[in-house]
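A protein record in our archive is deliberately plain, so that people and models can read it alike. The tokens are whole numbers drawn from a learned vocabulary of local backbone shapes. For reference, a complete record is included directly beneath this paragraph.
>
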Amino acid sequence: MKWRINNQKRHVIKDLRESSNSLFLLLNEWYQSPLGARVVDNEKQKLQETISHLFGYHILQVGADENLKLIENSPVGHKIIFSPFLFPGTKTPVANIEELPLANDSIDIILVYHALDFTIDSHRLLRELTRVLRPGGQMLIVGFNPLSLWGIFRLFMSKRNIPWMGRFLSLGRLSDWLKLLNLQIESVNYANHFLPFSYRKILARVEQFEKFGEKMHSPFGGSYIVHCEKTAIPITPIVTKRIPLASRVSVFPLTENIRAKIH
């Protein structure tokens, strides 16, 4: 039964990825909705607390287009954002984020904005992002938290609608993947502690819910923000132990003066 449920979820994501252009447009449309806009604002506020203190030469944003402006306040000068396809009005280069046209170890900071939630193979995408991140580089991962009110509501919602069609990757599994890729977690923050409804009364009190969740240090926010660093693998040189050769010393037999008797 568990395999059947997971297989059905995978088919839903696969059907969406086959029409990635439509999925990208649906995501952007949801981010502009009353509920989606509150989600973006809460997550952006948490992100700015970290991004503003990260420095480097290149910063990459994946999972959202330039309209969200999630890295605009970064002190890093060169900001990179890819669009999955060419559409009217786009100002960013087009590329597949699962096959980035970037060199190995070339990016200082990467913001992964719900990209792992809406892809067929999340681990493959994470490997590709790790490939372009330099040793010592910083990665910020934003994802929906299954251990939250949002995760509970997802069990009863249609998987054909956003955000419920997303993967909702657990922190436990994500942590295991990060360890395998030599990404060390520095901190984890949570956002969106309010009920996932578009009612005006609820949206009007979102700030109160956020302050309460932050005050209680609640790990049950609807989304998490994981800050991790790519650690360099130390290379230990193999030193061959040399055994000094003993110097050759001429050995002369010591004999006493022996008188030989000749018979």
About this structure: The chain has a mean pLDDT of 84. The chain has one domain: 2-230.
